[in-house]
Amino acid sequence: MGKMRELIYCQECGVKLNEIVTDEGVNRKICEFCKKIAYENPVPATAAILFNERGELLLVKRNVEPKAGEWCLPGGFNEIGETPEECCLRELKEETGLTGSIERIIGSVPGVNPFYRSVLVTGYSIGNFSGSISAGDDSDEAGFFELSNLPEIAFKSHRELLKTYMDKELYSTDKGMLKAMGAYVITSGDHINVAESACEAGATIIQYRDKAASQSEKLTKAKLIRKITRNTETLFIVNDDIDIALISGADGVHLGQDDISVEEARKIVPGNFIIGKSTHSLEQALAAEKDGADYIGIGPVFKTPTKEDYIPIGVETVKKVIHNVKIPFVCIGGLNYDNIQGLLTLGAINFAMVREFASDTKNSVKRINNMIAGN
Ligand code: TZP
Ligand code: MG
User: Fold this and answer.
1) 333 within ligand 1 shell (Cβ under 6 A)
2) Which residues of 171-180 are buried (b: 16+ CB within 10 A; e: fewer)?
3) Taking 80 as the threshold, does the pLDDT of residue 47 lie above it?
4) What would the DSSP string read from start to end of 107-174?
5) How confident is the model at residue 180 (pLDDT cuts 50, 70, 90)?
6) Which phi and psi angles does 236 have, rounded to 5°?
7) Which one, of 77, 80, 97, 96, lies nearest residue 88 by Cα?
């Protein structure tokens, strides 16, 4: 991206602008003739992140400057009266011929542009797409690219949005690229101690699950676990309570069958917030996937005193989930070092446990992650 084009003349009367520093210490330009500050605000734009069922990313080849001849995400500038979501879907249709629906907001990234000075690009992930590709408007070509074989992406803002999407997504749409959660540690007993040890051992996910504490106690502990996991690779998920997850700044929430739906929860959480869902059958697993869950828990696989009144779903249901569900799933319930080997052989790679991590947490996490990694 080139250098930002400077605003030199008043856009209303053409007089050369003077530079001032406001009482608040902000550098501004002023037109002495119009007696007005010439505010420099970014132009709003959007970009669409769309993967096909093979996990390939949709890109377009630009036919206009800046960066004519280079590839980028489909997208463009907001029209007056249009919401960013409408802009994103319109640009997608114009540039690629595809229609789709907004899945979620990925984030907004400021950028500079030699033609429009400053832009603010909001990225959205797109689901349920249909139609056949036909390039149009600002693009000469449109096509799907394997992530391992992407062309250079022209705009830094698009590269940043993609990175945010990839970092926070636990998976790509290609199941083969499913990112392992590995040992999924559910806290119990001395929750803080378990979380601290799990984090030190490099657990991918810690879920704070505390059925006994009051809401205020839970919030205090959730904040502590957030502190422990902040600036580490470990994701922090709160069980059941979306309010505590949001206030403590957790990475996500894990909802049960009796909690609010994923679709409703999605309305009040940030774009990259992880929402997991407990499921106890293939039907519930498919419903959670349709509802937009980022991952599901499937279980209890075996009988467990931790969830006593549930009938175990058994290995057969896990097999069905492996073959029918596209989002990541984590097996749960009655798992231990000995019985996860069989599930690994079937193709399961993520295992959530309460009792196994309740004592000697650090060693248990390391032992189970080594086993998952095949060491
Ligand atoms: N959901 C299904 S089984 C279960 C939950 C929360 C408890 C798993 O506990 P454990 O001690 O690992 O069997
Ligand atoms: Mg629950």
Assistant:
1) yes
2) bbbbeeebee
3) yes
4) EEEEEEETTTEEEEEEEEEEEEEES-----TTEEEEEEE-GGGPPPBS-HHHHHHHHHHHHH-S--SS
5) low
6) -115, 120
7) 77
pTM exceeds cut of 0.85: no
Rg of the chain over Cα atoms, rounded to whole angstroms, equals: 24
Q: Which domains does the chain have, with CATH numbers?
A: 43-168 (3.90.79.10), 182-374 (3.20.20.70)
Q: Which of the listed residues 298, 310, 332, 355 should we mutate to test ligand 1's pocket, taking the one with most ligand atoms within 8 A of CB?
A: 332
Mean pLDDT of the chain: 89
pLDDT in the model for residue 291: 94
User: How would residue 171 be classed by pLDDT, with cut points 50, 70 and 90?
Assistant: very low
pLDDT at 336 over 60: yes
CA distance linking residue 168 with residue 322, whole number of Å: 22
Beta carbon of 276 within 6 Å of any ligand 1 atom: no
Amino acid type, 283:
E
Q: Which residue has the tokens 């250079």?
A: 152
